[in-house]
Amino acid sequence: MVFARRSAVYMVLVAALVLFLSPFGWLVITALKASSELRVMPIHWWPHDPSLENFKDALTHFEYFAYARNSLTIAGIYSVLITLASAWAGYGFARLDAPGKRVIFGVLISTMMLPQIITLIPTYLLFARMNLLNTYMPWVLWGLAGAPFLIFLFRQFFSNMPKELEEAAIVDGCGSVRIFWRIFLPQSWPVIAASLIISFSWSWGDYVAPALLLDSDRTTLTVKLATGYVNEHGAQMSNLVAAGAVMYVVPVLALFLIMQRGFVSGISTSGLK
């Protein structure tokens, strides 16, 4: 009975794995096809002559690495700044006392329900008046502002830390800033890993903000993948788009594989108190 139940669970998990990986699998298969095979009906599931030439062409059709560098710069700056800012805000909500702290935290969490598309036009007008269009300063400011979800994660983690650590530091003459940098932040590596992965994925995969705020030379790889693979007739080359997209997910996948233990631990240890 136990074996049958375990086998059923494994079958469900395998089916779910196949379901979730099927879009990426189809992307890889498309990246291995020649352009002529994409116009054949009915559709061939597997390419007749699989080739890696599309990956080479995807790298050389436009300056792939230059736009990847733009994306990496924006995502790196944004993820580091928003992690530090969210950690500092989460520490304040968890360990410091101030009038109306609970009300402010409730308002902060309620902003998670606000669709980002609503703030799109006001954000553009604000940055335009500040002469920050076609610069990376919007991502710096967004990073310094923190994120409600990440602040929530840090707040929950810091709330569960022993109060004796803080009291011992106060006896030694440490202030709130030093306690945060010397005690709480080094202990919060699991949440830091989760925050870095989440925020890096947000910025790396964002299409709307770079398309709205940056010109074609300083834009990100996300935008260029959607518009850069066209032939001389203006038609999109789907096999090159697929090849470029497969390589596009590598940095996020590599970051997750490096920090996956911390990510899982950070999410699990930041539950509701």
Automatic annotation (TrEMBL):
From the Swiss-Prot or TrEMBL record, state where the protein is found: Cell membrane
Chief subcellular location: membrane
What membrane topology is annotated for this entry?
Multi-pass membrane protein
Q: Does the keyword Acetylation apply?
A: no
Could you tell me the keywords of this UniProt record? Cell membrane, Membrane, Transmembrane, Transmembrane helix, Transport
Residue ranges spanning the membrane: these are: 7-29, 72-91, 103-127, 139-158, 179-204, 240-259
Instruction: Pinpoint the ABC transmembrane type-1 domain residues.
Output: 68-259
Q: List the InterPro entries.
A: MetI-like, MetI-like_sf
Family (UniProt): Belongs to the binding-protein-dependent transport system permease family.
Spell out the protein name for this chain.
Carbohydrate ABC transporter permease
Give the source species: Streptomyces sp. 900129855
